[in-house]
């Protein structure tokens, strides 16, 4: 008897699932014209509103996406005599995104590490600029940069810098775009003979 009941329930579930998928959920939609579906003669284009009333008649914003921000690190690489160094490798190895616990958010990890492995070179006068776009985190973000003489006969010692941006550094954000932050750093590389 139990086998028959299980087969009946399973068969009923399959039949109902199939019926619902064939009919769709159009009967659950609410139309602006008094509850009637729009006629096929008058095509109506509707743009979804970002404000959907809740039960207490207060609006709230409905968004879908991922928060992101832009971080820019720029500066100049010079030698000990303040001369700009051309073709020095600007190597970004990783970006650490730090999360802190708040009353509405408990992160599963406090630090998320992105392996970046991005290399560029300084200009003729030693200038560089690095752009990173990604998830900003709610606390801070660290961009790890190594400056290295990549020439065949390297004359300068490598140096590293960790550039930290805080969430309060972001300016001009709206919606999922949380803004842009910029930092300028200057690096002096030592001669290998010094």
Task: Fill in the keyword field for this structure.
194 residues, mainly beta, four-stranded mixed beta sheet, four-stranded antiparallel beta sheet
Describe the structure.
- The chain has 194 residues and is mostly beta strands.
- The protein has one helix and ten strands, in the order H-E-E-E-E-E-E-E-E-E-E.
- It has one helix at residues 2-23; strands spanning 51-53, 59-61, 68-78, 88-98, 111-121, 127-134, 140-149, 159-166, 171-174, 177-188.
- The strands form three sheets. Strands 6-3-10-9 form a four-stranded mixed beta sheet, with no helix packed on it. The protein has a four-stranded antiparallel beta sheet with strand order 5-4-7-8, with no helix packed on it.
**What percent strand?**
35-45%
List the uncertain runs.
45-57
> Biggest β-sheet: count, sense, barrel?
4 strands, mixed
Q: What count of helical segments does DSSP give? A: 1
Strand order of the largest sheet: 6-3-10-9
Q: Which outline best applies?
A: elongated
Structural class designation: mainly beta
Q: Kindly report the average pLDDT value.
A: 81
Rounded to an integer, what's the Rg over CA atoms? 28 Å
Helicity, in percent?
10-25%
SSE inventory with pairings:
Blueprint: H1 2-23, E1 51-53, E2 59-61, E3 68-78, E4 88-98, E5 111-121, E6 127-134, E7 140-149, E8 159-166, E9 171-174, E10 177-188
Parallel strand pairs: 3-10
Antiparallel strand pairs: 1-2, 3-6, 4-5, 4-7, 7-8, 9-10
In short:
The chain has one helix at residues 2-23; strands spanning 51-53, 59-61, 68-78, 88-98, 111-121, 127-134, 140-149, 159-166, 171-174, 177-188. The protein has 194 residues and is mostly beta strands.
